[in-house]
Amino acid sequence: MTKTHAGTTLPPGQQLIDFFPRFGRRLDQPPPTVPAQPTVIFGGVLPTPIEIAVDELVDTGRRDLDADFHCVAGWSVTGLHWEGAAFADVYRRYVAPAVPAGTTVTHVTVRGLDGEHFVAQLDDLLADDVLLADRLGGRPLDGAHGAPLRLVNPAQYGYANIKHVCRIDVHAGPPAAGPQALLDRLLESHPRARVWEEERHGTVPGRLIRPIYRVIKSFLLSAAVRRGEAGHHSNANNG
């Protein structure tokens, strides 16, 4: 394992960097436009969808979280300071009472305004350190890092930490997968995406897929430097 400057360890295959870049598959596009009054819709097995304002949602047991962030491409930033509501508190307050009797929720699809989504196991999202965050580094989230609301799960790779959250669907089993683009099939996401187990890929062991991600990391981090994102403290909400 790799020692960080803080004396902690990084998950296998990760490299520490000193800034928090905007990263993802849609870097050729600007962040999505956020509605003036953003909301999150909860659906799936719920008989009637529930729509809740983001401001109301994050006031459900607001808390702080200091955590590291690990990208599947192989870079990590440490000591990010997030603020928001615990996913578990939101789930138990708004969602669990609306689940039909006799239905057991096992999976959750989190969707963003940018079209990205991730299907998580409910147990993973009910961990104590999973947030629906609206603030980073003491300031409201900006477009680069997920405004107006971001799922933060330090135990999972960044692709599971969906930005711009706008809808959360709960399911009584794994939902059927839709059609995938070629790149999505090649870089097949792991259903758990746990960083300490190096679950980078759905079928290929993490250590074997590292060289591919190393190339992606080098290219995209170089692009981030050209955009002027380097040189900021990693705990800042920079672009």
From TrEMBL:
InterPro entries, per the entry: OxRdtase_Mopterin-bd_dom, OxRdtase_Mopterin-bd_sf
A Pfam family: Oxidored_molyb
SUPFAM superfamilies: Oxidoreductase molybdopterin-binding domain
Transmembrane segments: none
Domain annotation Oxidoreductase molybdopterin-binding: ranges: 43-172
Listed name of the protein: Molybdopterin-dependent oxidoreductase
Organism whose genome encodes this protein: Nocardioides turkmenicus
Lineage: Bacteria, Bacillati, Actinomycetota, Actinomycetes, Propionibacteriales
